[in-house]
Specification:
Strand 4 and strand 5 form a beta hairpin. The protein folds into 2 domains: about 120 residues, Rossmann fold (3-Layer(aba) Sandwich); about 100 residues, LytTr DNA-binding domain (OB fold (Dihydrolipoamide Acetyltransferase, E2P)), CATH 2.40.50. It is an alpha/beta fold. Helices cover about 25% and strands about 35% of the residues.
Length: about 240
């Protein structure tokens, strides 16, 4: 399967992040290479940047409709429109649109849309880590992914097992670590933590719109408010 490059044109940061996370879940190897918040930034990308394989484009940007910028696009690049409104369907497909996703975007709708545009993108399954080599005393030993309850970032990236023991990893960030993890099995619940689905025992409402996870071994983790909807969607898969 050939990995693709993607642009996300969206004026709201939470919506950009939401779409990027969902894209990683359904197509882990694909890369978001550029983003833009306005027609001005979008037009500059179209004039100067290397074109991607696919563009996700919100219709209503902060300085007008993105259809204005797309009218200048002379290269045949597939565009998937994302919007909270349904009245722009005809205009979207008249302006290079090959897909139309209604917000909030579900994983299923995104997956079906991408499979329609790039049929071969579902033909192979990506390869993920099954274990890490970690230091234990004066020696290195394998730590199986199946034994990790969650990953935590605090200056360094650590894997945490059922007993709450930390194992330092060589990854410089959780974002780098995410590339090695199966997104169907692991979810980034906050900037500091990634949890494994198999160890989630219960989930409870928590302060300020967050969620509290209790693991099968009694460890407690918090889902950030901005990731609650994506987490619920992931848990239901």
């Amino acid at each position: 399967m050939e990995n693709k490059t993607v642009w996300i044109i969206e004026d709201e940061a939470p919506a950009r992040q939401h779409l990027a996370r969902k894209l990683h879940q359904v197509r882990p190897g694909w890369q978001v290479t550029k983003t833009a918040e306005s027609n001005k930034e979008f037009s500059e990308l179209l004039e100067r940047a290397t074109f991607p394989d696919l563009i996700f484009c919100d219709i209503e940007l902060s300085d007008g409709q993105s259809l204005i910028s797309l009218a200048k696009l002379e290269v045949n690049i597939p565009v998937v429109f994302t919007t909270a409104y349904g009245e722009f369907t005809r205009e979207a497909f008249e302006n290079k649109g090959v897909g139309y996703l209604m917000k909030p975007i579900s994983i299923r709708a995104l997956d079906e849309c991408l499979s329609r545009i790039f049929p071969s993108s579902t033909s192979e399954k990506p390869s993920f880590k099954s274990q890490f080599l970690v230091k234990k005393g004066n020696v290195f030993v394998p730590l199986k992914i199946a034994d990790v309850v969650y990953f935590n970032f605090d200056t360094y990236v650590f894997a945490v097992d059922q007993g709450g023991k930390n194992y330092a990893l060589s990854h410089e960030s959780l974002s780098k670590l995410e590339e090695d993890l199966n997104p169907r099995q692991f979810f980034r619940i906050s900037r500091q933590q990634i949890v494994q689905k198999d160890y989630i025992k219960t989930v409870h409402p928590y302060h300020s719109g967050r969620l509290l996870i209790e693991s099968t071994s009694g460890l407690k983790l918090t889902v950030s408010r901005d990731r609650v909807n994506d987490f619920k969607d992931w848990m239901g898969r």
